[in-house]
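Ticket #387: bound-state structure for flavin-adenine dinucleotide.
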Amino acid sequence: MNFDLTDEQDQLRDAVRALGRRYGHEYFVRKAKAGEHTTELWHEAGRLGYLGVNIPTEYGGGGGGITELALVCEELAAAGCPLLLLVVSPAIAATVINKHGTEEQRKRHLPGLADGSQKIVFAITEPDAGSNFHRLGTVARRDGDDWLLSGRKVYISGVDEADHVLVVARTEDSSTGKLKPALFIVPTDAPGLEKSKLDMEILSPENQFLLYLDDVRLPADALVGESLDAGLPALFAGLNPERITVAAMGAGTGRYAIEKASDYTATRKVWGGRSIGSHQGVAHPLAHAAVQVELARLMIQKAATLYDAGRDLEAGVSGNMAKYAAGEAAALAVDTAVQALGGAGMTTEYGVATLLGAVRAGRIAPVSREMILNFVAQHVLGQDKSY
Ligand SMILES: Cc1cc2nc3c(=O)[nH]c(=O)nc-3n(C[C@H](O)[C@H](O)[C@H](O)COP(=O)(O)OP(=O)(O)OC[C@H]3O[C@@H](n4cnc5c(N)ncnc54)[C@H](O)[C@@H]3O)c2cc1C
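RESOLUTION: The complex was predicted; output attached.
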């Protein structure tokens, strides 16, 4: 058992941390409040190779794994820049295309995803299906060699800044009634694809959208993989990277909040010469949150290690547990930090309340805490499926 990072991973962590700190949370908040994107940070991270750490070198990436991408997600978040699109574009889209796309799709998309010049977002959630993806209603029909896609998607992140959206649909000929999913790489400017921005109570430079697909015509090679049989494995291929990287983002956000609060409580004095942090009523909740974040980080490391070793089933259990633990720990850490800062905790200047919406959403998306508990109950504890 080894908890040490390799020298290369250590260097990556330090370099990403330095980049994140150069931009910092003020930059993140300024962009979000102005309704702008963190384009400069994204492009610089891409130029430095951090967005493509998990993409094979022959397609312009770093040749690492999800362990490396999780480090990038965690360190940027720990610097106050939790970039949700890292989870969507390099973690989900790049993994799906790399593992299940055609060689032509890999060549067309992976170099741009690696250097940040291209973003592919991900659309599975639907208004009438929600957590139950077996009810997906977005349908793909053949029309000659082409495909026609129709349906609706909701809460889709980053459509306004992406070139393509990876859409999960079902194929119409599923006469058995069983879900036969198929993934399509859809240009965001395709005729018939309309987007409508949702008003979300999350301070974030990334936006969520309702998507309407009305007979969106796609060429045959928009289908991920060589045939419809690629659909289900392609869909599952994105899940572990998604859970692990979103967990890493949560752990980084938790670290950021605890660091901010600890710096404050160690120096703030309102009772004579003693810091407020000397009061256990202030310090213990912070210490408790720090323990929860550290436990989540351990599970993230385990999940990423298993995933990179090709042990997908075990990574599925650990990845879900890591996502659950990190989601809870991040929400706890930010809330505890706000409390420890008192009134300052609610100001924009101190930069912790600015994360309340994001960490709250982290307990819902991309998979809710309840759906993870269902998974653990069924697959770890051997309980009957409850839904
Ligand atoms: C900020 C944000 C960004 C997002 N980005 C994307 C994106 O880029 N792409 C994308 O496809 N989706 C995205 N989503 C959607 C997200 O994945 C869904 O919101 C999430 O999967 C839950 O689905 P739902 O909102 O329809 O909730 P519902 O399925 O309606 O569930 C509502 C509540 O009921 C609970 N529940 C439902 N079923 C059960 C059950 N069987 N047992 C116990 N509890 C249950 C849920 O846990 C939840 O608390 C995003 C969401 C947010 C908030």
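RESOLUTION NOTES: The mean pLDDT is 96.
TICKET STATUS: resolved
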